[in-house]
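Bumping my old thread because nobody answered last time. Still need a sequence for this structure:
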């Protein structure tokens, strides 16, 4: 039997942040959307129905919001990395997948979003 891949899925977290290379982008906060997959072992939580037995996704969202709204980044990749580090601070999270999208990318094309996706594992 394969490795257990239980996960907590968080979709469509929308926040405003300063991210971009041009000064104008960092000076004017813009909306981003974040999806998170937190890989956890959910067996104990499923058996006990106890929040202490799993990662608290409300706490994870608070940590992500603090990183996103409290910092300025040039690159989406750097912002996504900071988000992953914040989520992995909870030792119950074994791995996190972060998808991060600018909702108003500053390009002269009809582009709905521009984004990155990363996966980080606990060492």
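Sorry it took so long. Here it is:
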């Amino acid at each position: 039997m394969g490795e257990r891949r239980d996960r907590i899925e968080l979709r469509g977290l929308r926040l405003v942040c300063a991210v971009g290379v041009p000064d104008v982008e960092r000076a004017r906060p813009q909306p981003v959307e974040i999806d998170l997959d937190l890989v956890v072992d959910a067996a104990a939580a499923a058996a006990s129905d106890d929040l202490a037995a799993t990662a608290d996704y409300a706490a994870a969202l608070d940590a992500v919001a603090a990183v996103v709204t409290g910092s300025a980044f040039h690159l989406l990749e750097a912002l996504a990395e900071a988000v992953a580090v914040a989520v992995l601070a909870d030792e119950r999270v074994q791995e996190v997948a972060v998808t991060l999208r600018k909702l108003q990318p500053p390009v002269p094309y009809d582009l709905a979003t521009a984004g990155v996706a990363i996966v980080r594992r606990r060492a």
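The two ends are 24 Å apart (CA to CA). Let me know if any region looks off to you.
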